[in-house]
Design a protein that fits this description.
- It is built from seven helices and 15 strands.
- By secondary structure, it is α/β, with parallel strands linked by helices.
- The chain folds into three domains: 146 residues, Rossmann fold (3-Layer(aba) Sandwich); 68 residues, Luciferase, domain 3 (Roll); 50 residues, ANL, C-terminal domain (GMP Synthetase, Chain A, domain 3, 2-Layer Sandwich), CATH 3.30.300.30.
Length: 296
């Protein structure tokens, strides 16, 4: 809570998640309270009754740390792309804007930068199995140096305790900027899962057997030459077209760059000659957008 979120005594932490999953108990119910922070609970859609409902709460409670899923941000962005509702409220209290839950596309990061230029953005990546972020920025870095620059599309770098590698299908470590499976070198840090309840063998088979000496995350990604990690998709979402391994997350990133697109989902479908081919489902932003043309 202190190092990653910069949540301290007197902070106001607002995590717009369901308290029924891991973010709920760790980062809504007791995590902030252990740091002496207040917690804001919110149940509902972030654009009901209007796209300013989140910013109304931020102004009312002087929220200092906002923690949301990229989907929540994109829902707001769809109805308020130009930030007209943002301008109606005082959001200057926000120091950290943290993201979690799934890959955040660069356009959503740019939207946050555009309408909240004063905030520190921290796109974290972790899993229920890990209990806390594997990668992200350290917003309170008294022991570790300085905050890393935000790189849209990246979850920054591994935090202390995690040694993250990118492996090929045959478990050789890949050079920078090559897509592969994301693994974590053992031993694993505190709070990491120890087994599956009542089924040690299933735990070994699912998480450890495929990459001996490493935890298999199930995600696919790349690590660039500066050590920034990019989580692109789940391993089973990588499609094979004419022998080329293609990340559906990277395709979504390109499609989302279009001015009219809020969000997209790319899947693979079987094609007799080329194998798997990508099919994109696209959500357009706001009213008034009638036609979308993207070159294949």
């Amino acid at each position: 809570m202190r190092s990653v979120f910069n949540v301290n005594k007197g902070s106001v932490h607002f995590a717009g998640s369901d308290i029924g999953w891991v973010v709920g108990h760790s980062f809504i119910v007791y995590g902030p309270l252990l740091r002496g922070s207040s917690c804001v609970f919110f149940e509902g859609k972030p654009v009901v009754p209007n796209p300013g409902v989140i910013w109304e709460k931020v102004q009312k409670y002087k929220v200092t740390c906002l923690y949301m899923a990229p989907t929540g941000v994109r829902v707001i962005k769809k109805d308020d792309y130009d930030g007209e509702w943002v301008k109606k409220y005082d959001t200057s209290s926000i120091d950290g804007y943290l993201l979690v839950g799934e890959r955040c596309d660069p356009d959503t990061i740019h939207w946050i930068h555009r309408h909240f230029p004063h905030v520190k953005i921290n796109d974290t990546w972790w899993q229920t199995e890990t209990g806390w972020p594997i990668t992200g920025n350290l917003l309170n870095i008294r022991e570790f140096g300085k905050i890393f620059p935000t790189l849209p599309g990246s979850v920054t770098k591994p935090v202390p305790g995690y040694d993250v590698r990118i492996f090929s299908e045959d478990n050789n470590e890949l050079p920078p900027n090559q897509l592969g499976k994301v693994v974590i070198k053992m031993p694993l840090p505190p709070s990491f899962m120890l087994t599956l309840w009542g089924n040690d063998q299933a735990f070994i088979e699912k998480y450890l057997a495929d990459t001996p000496g490493y935890y298999t995350t199930g995600d696919a990604g790349i690590k660039d030459e500066n050590g920034y990690l990019h989580i692109m998709t789940r391993m089973d979402d990588v499609i094979n077209t004419c022998g080329h391994r293609i990340s559906t997350g990277r395709l979504e990133e390109v499609i989302n760059d279009h001015d009219s697109v809020v969000e997209s989902a790319v899947i693979g479908y079987n094609e007799e000659i080329r194998g798997e081919c990508p099919l994109a489902f696209v959500i357009l932003r706001g009213a008034g957008v009638k036609e979308l043309s993207i070159e294949q």
